[in-house]
Design goal:
Layout lengths: L21 E2 L16 E6 L31 H11 L21 H17 L6 E2 L2 E2 L5 H12 L4 H18 L1 H4 L12 E6 L5 E6 L6 H8 L2 H19 L12 E6 L9 H17 L4 E7 L3 H10 L5 H5 L1 E3 L5 H8 L30 E5 L3 E9 L3 E9 L4 E9 L7 E9 L7 E7 L3 E9 L5 E10 L4
GO molecular function: lipid binding
GO biological process, one term: protein localization involved in auxin polar transport
InterPro entries: CRAL-TRIO_dom (IPR001251), CRAL-TRIO_dom_sf (IPR036865), CRAL/TRIO_N_dom (IPR011074), CRAL/TRIO_N_dom_sf (IPR036273), GOLD_dom (IPR009038), PATL (IPR044834), PATL1-6_C_GOLD (IPR056794)
Length: 473
């Protein structure tokens, strides 16, 4: 029976898989290209327009004859109360876990003494000339302090228990043949089940665990149907974990923990016997041999059965373990992720704009920041981007879950210019493409208006980003 290690919180079932148009209708003759150093600026109009507000009259050239109006908001308190009641069903932590410093200078006197004692005992224990763990030679430099602190915190700074844990881990690594495992070809069948993608707001690499993939009977049977396949799954799990850990930085003050996102949508649940067996084996190895590698555990698309299960085991979890857990139901999952991860780092399937693993829109990557704007119920939100040079402007935009109308329009600054409807107002439903990607060739100075009309009683979140490219005839 494995000794419990609350410092590396990992939930029971489901299995813990730790460480995934160009529109140019203007007829204006292109002017000589302006200097590229002239800026493109943006202005976000935060005026809320009522859904039933009469449409402003346009002059023959398409320019609006009145400005956006500011009006009193309709009641939304009832809807907010309903949303709050729904969210209250999700477990809430009264204390949020704050990761401790791994700098020796930040330790208390007693913690520093324990670290020094552990190093001294480990020096006496190690018989081989050089022993490495996670790619770091022990007792060679200050990275050792960071690693030993993980074991000490897993055992509440009890030196002898920490030493036993380290020695057991080193022996297990030999028996499991970890170094050879790193080069083993275990296939790519589970690449969609667990994958690393982006970084949290605090710089932690993010690991996505997608349990719904196991609804695929062929994949499930191939992974768990007999002991040999479960052992292969276990080796794949450990291999993935080892490769992920070796990309971390064990120098003091650097990031050496992982942010985990556990997607429980369509998860098979705890009734699958083979799943429970594989989970128990994996949990035992993780608890005993990989302490303090989780910065935060976020569970999204949480189903009712998992909440019931968590309620049963909650009394047996330490406050430290529970403080690393965050739960969110389906409606709150994107907002919960955005609290910890910037939208440009979140994959499209989870509400963000990150498409780095495909060729959907090569103009943007995770390094291009996103602007977030709240769209209140029954209001209209317009983003105004002033353009001061001839260029091609490209943008992408989304509202999570849509249920809004979207339009795009370019209005030239010249009084005799004509407005260009790039995208007429179009109703966007949840079944539409999650992200709109567009471009427009700007041959005269003016403003680009991106408008989202929210007719629902739900607050929405508008995400967008843009960049300019050189103008070409």
């Amino acid at each position: 029976m494995a000794e419990n290690n609350d410092s590396n919180p990992t939930p029971p079932p489901p299995p813990h898989v730790t460480l995934p148009h160009e529109a140019d209708s203007s007829t204006v003759t292109p002017e000589p290209e302006l200097k590229p150093e002239l800026p493109v600026t943006e202005k976000i109009e935060l005026h809320d327009v009522p859904l039933q507000q009469p449409e402003p009259e346009n002059d023959p050239k398409g320019n609006s004859s009145q400005d956006v109006a500011v009006v009193e908001q309709p009641k939304e308190e009832e809807q907010e109360n309903h949303n709050q009641l729904q969210q209250n069903k999700i477990p809430q932590n009264s204390v949020s876990f704050k990761e401790e410093s791994n700098r020796v200078s930040d330790l208390s006197d007693s913690e520093r003494d324990s670290l020094e004692e552990l190093k001294k005992l480990l020096t006496q224990t190690l018989t081989e000339q050089e022993v490495s763990i996670w790619g770091v030679p022990l007792l060679q430099d200050e990275r050792t302090d960071v690693i030993l602190l993980k074991f000490l915190r897993a055992r509440e700074f009890k030196v002898k228990e920490s030493l036993t844990m380290i020695n057991n881990t080193l022996q297990w690594r030999k028996d499991f043949n970890i170094e050879s495992l790193l080069d083993e070809d275990l296939g790519d069948d589970l690449d969609k089940v667990v994958f690393m993608h982006g970084y949290s707001r605090e710089g932690h690499p993010v690991c996505y665990n997608v349990y719904g993939e196991f609804q695929n009977k062929e994949l499930y049977d191939k992974t768990f149907s007999n002991e040999e396949r479960r052992n292969r799954f276990l080796r794949w799990r450990i291999q993935f974990l080892e490769k992920s850990i070796r990309k971390l930085d064990f120098n003091p003050g650097c990031v050496n923990t992982v942010f985990q996102v556990n997607d429980l949508k369509n998860s098979p649940g705890p009734a699958k016997r083979e799943l429970r067996i594989a989970t128990k084996q994996a949990l035992q190895l993780l608890q005993d041999n990989y302490p303090e590698f989780v910065a935060k555990q976020v569970f999204i698309n949480v189903p009712w059965w998992y909440l019931a299960f968590y309620t049963m085991i909650n009394p047996f979890l330490t406050q430290r373990t529970k403080s690393k857990f965050v739960f969110a139901g389906p409606s709150k999952s994107p907002d919960t992720l955005f609290k910890y991860i910037s939208p440009e780092q979140v994959p499209v399937q989870y509400g963000g704009l990150s498409v780095d693993f495909c060729d959907c829109n090569p103009d943007f990557s995770m390094s291009d920041p996103i602007t977030e704007i709240p769209v209140k119920p029954t209001t209209k939100q317009t983003v105004e981007i002033a353009i001061y040079e001839k260029c091609i402007i490209v943008w992408e935009l989304r509202v999570v879950g849509w249920e809004v109308s979207y339009s795009a329009e370019f209005k030239p600054d010249a009084k005799d210019g004509y407005a260009v409807i790039i995208q007429k107002a179009t109703k966007m439903s949840p079944s539409d493409e999650p992200v709109v990607s567009s471009s427009f060739k700007v041959s005269e100075l003016g403003k680009l208006f991106l408008t989202v009309d929210n007719p629902t009683l739900k607050k929405k979140r508008l995400l967008y980003r843009f960049k300019i490219k050189p103008y070409s005839d």
